[in-house]
Amino acid sequence: MSRSTGREIESVWDYPRPPAVVQDNRPVRVECGGRVVAETRHALRVLETSHPPTFYIPPGDVSSDLLFPADGHSWCEWKGSARYWDVIIGHEVRSRAAWSYPSPNPAYKVLKDYVAFYPGSVDRCVVGDEEVQAQDGDFYGGWITTDVQGPFKGAPGTRGW
After folding, report:
1. pLDDT tens, position by position, for the chain (161 residues)?
2. pTM of this prediction?
3. Count of domains in the chain?
4. Which residues are CB-neighbours of 30 under 8 A, at least 6 positions away?
5. Is residue 149 domain-resident?
6. Has residue 152 been placed in a domain?
């Protein structure tokens, strides 16, 4: 059990493949440029082998006026085609700081239009009372908290995991 959260420690090596989607009712907040960009108690966590959880926030709990479509997309073998979002606050642009699945594959339809944020691209992401650490690498968007343990995919030398 984690001392800071009182929750059981989860090993990312126990997470399934294909990934699972689970409800998480802890308070989740994303901050950037002095603004709260997203805040919810209705996040979904995607749990995939070797990755810290990725938190997806319902579209109604995201300040959509701060998100602007970004160029490009990516493909997830499980979830489908992702679109990217820039977070723009005043003159500050956080390029491709968030992503969503407008038309996810049927098994992941619950994620439709939910928004995930890269913790390393915004100022702060918080789960409960804990500030998260960003997953290493420039592609994965996992949120590392004290109740998950690795090693985590994303660091140099882990691409082939």
Report:
1. 766 667 899 999 999 999 999 999 999 999 999 999 999 999 999 999 999 999 999 999 999 999 999 999 999 999 999 999 999 999 999 999 999 999 999 999 999 999 999 999 999 999 999 999 999 987 789 999 999 999 999 888 877 77
2. 0.94
3. 1
4. 36, 37, 38, 39, 57, 117, 122, 124, 125, 126
5. no
6. no
